[in-house]
Amino acid sequence: MSTETDNALELEQVSKSYVGVQALTGASLACRRGEVHALVGENGAGKSTLIKIASGAVAPDEGTVRIAGRQLTRPSPLLARRLGLLTAYQDTSLVPGLTVAENVVLSCHGVAQMGFRTRPGRAAEMLAGYDLPFAPSAVVADLSPGARQLLEVVRALLHRPRVLLLDEPTAALDAESIQRLEALVDGALQDGTAVLYISHRLDEVQRIAARLTVIRDGRIQGTYTREEWSDVGNASVDDIVTLMVGERTDLAFPPKPGVAPDATVALDARGFRGDGFGPVALHAHAGEIVGIAGAEGNGQRELVRSLVGLRHGKGELQLAGEAVAIRTPAAAIRHGITFLSGDRAAESTFAELSVMENGTTAMRDQLGPAGLVLRSRQRAGFARAAQALGIVHASPDQPIRELSGGNQQKTVLARALLRPGPVLVVDEPTQGVDARARLDIYRTLRTQADDGAAVVVSSSDSAELEGLCDRVYVLSRGRVVRELAGEDVQEATIVDAFVNARGDSEETTTADGRAEPARGALRGRLLGSSWLPLGVLLALIVGLGAYTQARSSLFLSDANLTSLFVLMLPLAAVALGEQFTLLTAGFDISIGSTMSLAVVLASFWVTSPTLGGSILGILACLGVGVAIGLFNGFVIRVVGVVAIVATIATLGILQGLAIVLRPQPGGTIGFGLTDALSAQIGFMPVALIVVVALAVLAELWLRTTSSGLRWRATGLAEEPSRRMGLSVDRIKILSYVLCAVIAVVAGLLLSVQLGVGSNSVGSDFGLVAFTACFLGGAALTGGRGSFVGTLVGALFVGMLTNVTPLLGWPEATSRTAAGVLTIVAIVAYAATSSGRVRLGGVWAGRAEAPLDPTTATTPEAEMLASHDAGTR
Amino acid sequence: MARDLSFRFATRYRVVWLALALIVALCAVDAPTVFHAVSLQLVFGLAGVLAIASAGQLLVVMLGGIDLSVPAVMTFAGAILVHQSGGHDGRLAGAVVLALAVALAIGLVNGLLIAVVGLNALIVTLAMSGVVGGVSLLWIGATYSPSGEVPAAIAKLAGHDVGPVSVLAFVGLGVLLLLGLALRSSRVGRSFVCAGTNPVAARVLGVRVTLYEVGGYALAAVLYAVAGLLLAGLLKQPNATLGDPYQLGTIVAVALGGASLGGGPASFLCTAGACVFLGFVDQYLQLKGVSGGVSQLVNGALLVLAVALVAVGARGRALLAFVPTTLRRIRRAGATS
Question: pTM of the full predicted structure?
Answer without folding.
Answer: 0.86
